[in-house]
Structure prediction request, 208 residues.
Amino acid sequence: MKDKNVILLGPPASGKGTQARQLAEHLSVPCLGTGKLLRNEIEKGSAVGLEAKEYMDGGRYVPDEVILKMVESWLAENPNGWLMDGFPRTLPQAEALQKIVQPTYIIALDVPREELEFRITKRRECTSCGITVAVNSIDENACPECEFGLLISRADDALDSFKVRYENYEELTLPLFDYYASLGTFNKVDGTQSPKEVFAEILNIVEK
Prediction:
């Protein structure tokens, strides 16, 4: 299964990160999450990180040329199967990636905007292991996965920021659905189901 190249798409708060971690482990392939890569660069204070921070803090997408340099380098290090979490996000990115390597499966999580806004108010990220979880109360701050880190709201999870990110998603990423459908590799999954049900549906696709 290591020769399978999978792209997982979906709007912010659709559950891409959770599904990507499980699927990468199941397929035994490395997972590329451009958001995580960019946040790492921001923490290091690198030039590309500082440039990206201005866009991310405003809920905007980082320019294609910055992202593509990072992705191409990552692909060179991981040639034998991979999973991409939320990349490509724009049609130029998709077309550029297609010239480098052809994805085996494109899987998109479909979740209505109202559900996404509800989720965003409950989403927290662990400061230690990086897992994303939904909390039941604002007092819930212990990570259920590693038990060491604290659960905090991400800077880009403010509702105003989310609205900007969702509008960008509609404008820039939704056109990819038609693009990949024309290539015959596109699959849509109902993301309103439980995480377990979503994962089962994804497995049915990649194990055909």
